[in-house]
Amino acid sequence: MFEYYADFWKNYVNFTGTASRSQYWYAYLWNAIIIALLVAAMLGGALVTGSFSESSAPIPSIIAIVILGLFLIALIIPNLSITIRRLRDGGFHWAFIFLGLIPYVGIFGSFVIFIFTLMPTKVVVRQTEVIKVYEVQQANSDDENLDGK
């Protein structure tokens, strides 16, 4: 499970290839856990000091906010990368990632991308490969027929 998250960071700029459903969702699970811990640290720092006002924000909360902000910024490119690879694995074109950017359609587009990431891996058999395999099998059977005569 953790190896999928390690792969998420190792392939953070890899926009080619595919990502399985488990790779995609385990990466999102670990990101959600880390974000929840940082938010808990942020709120915990405010609860310890008993202050929620902006003028007297506690130091641990400020540190947690900075770390959370940096973490969210660091997630932008890896999330794009794994989403594009997941769309490709599901048999969809990577350009569907832009559906979320269309005004008034963005929420619907994001929902469509979510549904696409839930789809199973699409196995594609290219027609040229099938023809080549058929030609090889045909040639082998012709050779066997010649040997038998």
UniProtKB/TrEMBL annotation:
GO terms for cellular component: plasma membrane. It comes from the Bacteria. The chain crosses the membrane at residues 28-50, 62-82, 94-118. Keywords: Membrane, Transmembrane, Transmembrane helix. The keyword Transmembrane helix applies. This is DUF805 domain-containing protein. It comes from Weissella muntiaci. The lineage of its organism: Bacteria, Bacillati, Bacillota, Bacilli, Lactobacillales.
